[in-house]
Design a protein that fits this description.
Length: about 170
């Protein structure tokens, strides 16, 4: 009887350790593969949340997702000169354009982190990097607010998108 019990325990320990190794491997793998499972359709969806559409083809040059402490997602696109000019013009003529924005402008300043109703704060401005659009959405208690910055580089045909859940 003791022999059967020991044999069962050995198999149970082996099964449990193999299962733990598999789970840990899957978690680590998921952290690294997330960057590679991001496509042009995902880019379009992220930009569409802000009513931004690229009319010409673009190249996804860089993509990075980090979720170790706070979640952040950044990608960079090589866009057409026409899309760049159209977006810069749109941002600069926006009703929420800030003419003399401070150098380190942060739309979150003075805004509530939490709100029971859905609200969004937006601002556009230009600085040394180019023309920027910022969006901040407070969330309900227990959820993380969303802060997004979209930069159109002045000297390059480049769009940089950054989303932070804090």
């Amino acid at each position: 009887m003791d022999f059967l019990y020991l044999d069962f325990m050995k198999k149970a320990v082996k099964f449990t350790s193999n299962l733990m190794v598999l789970i840990i491997t899957l978690v680590v793998f998921a952290l690294f593969i997330e960057d590679y499972l991001f496509f042009k359709s995902d880019v379009k969806a992220c930009l569409a949340e802000h009513n931004i559409e690229l009319l010409h083809d673009f190249e996804l040059e860089y993509n990075d997702v980090s979720s170790l402490m706070d979640y952040s997602h950044q990608f960079e696109l090589e866009i057409s000169a026409e899309d760049k000019e159209r977006l810069m013009s749109r941002f600069l003529s926006s009703p929420n354009y800030i003419k003399d924005a401070p150098e380190m402008f942060d739309i979150r300043s003075g805004k509530p982190r939490y709100s029971e109703k859905e609200i969004q704060f937006t601002a556009t401005y230009d600085d040394i990097r180019g023309v920027e659009y910022q969006s901040f959405r407070p969330s309900k208690k227990g959820h993380k607010p969303i802060w997004e910055i979209i930069t159109i580089k002045e000297k390059e045909n480049r769009l940089i998108y950054l989303r932070i859940l804090e």
